[in-house]
Amino acid sequence: MRLASSREPFDHPDWLFEPKWDGFRALAYVDGHHCRMVSRRGNVYKSWPYLCDELAHAVRCRSAVLDGEIACLEPDGRSHFYKLMFRREWPYFMAFDVLWLDGKDLRSLPLFRRKRILAGIMPAVESYVRLVDHIPGRGRDFFKVACAHDLEGVVAKWRGGTYQTGTKTSWLKIRNPHYSQWDGRRDLFDARSDNATRRTRWVRPQLELV
Prior knowledge:
With 210 residues, this protein is an alpha+beta fold. It has helices at residues 49-58, 81-85, 111-121, 139-148, 185-209, and strands spanning 4-5, 15-19, 24-31, 34-38, 63-71, 92-101, 104-105, 129-131, 135-136, 153-158, 171-175.
């Protein structure tokens, strides 16, 4: 499910509002005692095998596909992107939707029903798998609180919306324009991209000579 952008927060009784976690978006495929986490581009995350084990054993079902965010959390509950990116802390899986459960496709159900189902399979004890809670209707107040606590922003979701996998969406991201962890991030990613390009240029001739 894609996220469209909205510049301004809003209030509406038919919309749910969640905190926007600053991490890596992932689908978690739980199958018995196994789990794999896949990125938006279809790449399998391999850096956190213990989190896959946690998902496989903590979620109360035989099989499921969960949508969520991989995020490192500070003691006050805020996400910290750089600790995740540089693998400085063990991350959590912040689950906010369920697409499939024990052989049943749930994507055609409205969001509020999927959220009830998701809450019912979340771990009953302390875990690195967390349910993302929401508030109904009060998007403006929630956005003010998110900005006051230096969160990345909020996500607004139509409570009656189905889960769309194409270009259509009923999810909106509203970013905090003063979010502190955006500072220098573009330069960091540009530098990492340049380093990867240089390594490719050096490694490729060596591979061709073998």
